[in-house]
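Backbone-to-sequence.
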């Protein structure tokens, strides 16, 4: 039970782990998390909650949580919401919606508004900006490298519209500005940019840290990530860990000098970093 969360020693810190998925706990190419298996098993044994925070949808994350045996809260679509599965260790924060088997705390802008705004921005700027809502499953499958059934989970979007624009595009600034005037933002991601509300992973993580601090003594927080959309999450924890990647970690390191850099990339790096930080609890 990863969320019963009983420290083994009196006054020992109670760790809570927040983690990105793609490129961090999941291999960026094969999407496997298996190399992180030993550290995930240790978290389970020690009662350390592992909170997934991703740009993936709730539907995609449910599959991974099931495979990993997690029953902790989780953060889909770049902090668009926090889901608190039932039965939880404590009531969810105020404002959460009761959805039978889970509580949902919405933080982002609803998807229908994002799709409507994208249409307006397209007409205003005279640009053919295409989002998931304009694509067939075949096209999304080709662009993401995901199979058809995985794509069906990826299009069950609630708070984030992936759009086919690159951050180096000459139109990026105009699109960002048009989004900003509508109370939205455009966040560069791996394969896509993301049109979303002003939510981010850091805001959702702060809410969960307060939630854990209200129910657990001496909370220490760890976050692991590999991309700019993880920066806000890495800034609000005690132990930020940058997972080594091919591109962004050197630039990100400048923004978070306190971060430790994983020795390996992806889930292997995750495994080493978490075993290293938690080793104090097992001595
Ligand atoms: Mg990532």
């Amino acid at each position: 039970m990863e969320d019963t969360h009983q420290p083994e020693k009196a006054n020992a810190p109670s760790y809570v782990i927040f983690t990105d998925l793609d490129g961090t706990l999941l291999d960026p190419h094969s999407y496997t998390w298996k190399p992180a298996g030993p550290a995930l098993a240790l978290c389970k044994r020690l009662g350390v909650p592992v909170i997934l925070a991703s740009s993936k949808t709730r539907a995609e994350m449910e599959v991974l949580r099931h495979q990993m045996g997690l029953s902790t809260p989780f953060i889909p679509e770049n902090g668009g919401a926090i889901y608190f599965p039932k039965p939880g260790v404590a009531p969810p924060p105020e404002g959460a919606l009761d959805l039978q088997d889970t509580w949902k705390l919405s933080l982002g802008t609803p998807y229908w508004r994002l799709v409507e705004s994208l249409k307006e921005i397209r007409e205003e700027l005279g640009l053919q900006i295409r989002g998931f809502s304009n694509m067939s499953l075949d096209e999304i499958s080709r662009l993401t490298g995901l199979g058809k059934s995985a794509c069906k989970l990826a299009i069950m979007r609630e708070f984030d519209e992936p759009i086919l624009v690159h951050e180096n595009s000459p139109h990026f600034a105009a699109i960002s500005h048009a989004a900003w005037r509508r109370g939205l933002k455009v966040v560069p991601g791996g394969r896509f940019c993301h049109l979303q509300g002003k939510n981010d992973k850091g805001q959702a993580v702060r809410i969960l840290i307060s939630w854990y601090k209200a129910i657990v003594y001496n909370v220490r927080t760890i976050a692991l990530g590999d991309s700019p959309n993880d920066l806000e999450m890495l800034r609000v924890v005690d132990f930020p860990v940058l997972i080594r990647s091919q591109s962004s970690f050197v630039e990100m390191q400048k923004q978070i000098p306190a971060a430790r850099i994983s020795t390996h990339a992806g889930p292997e790096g995750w495994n080493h970093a978490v075993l290293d930080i938690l080793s104090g609890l097992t001595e």
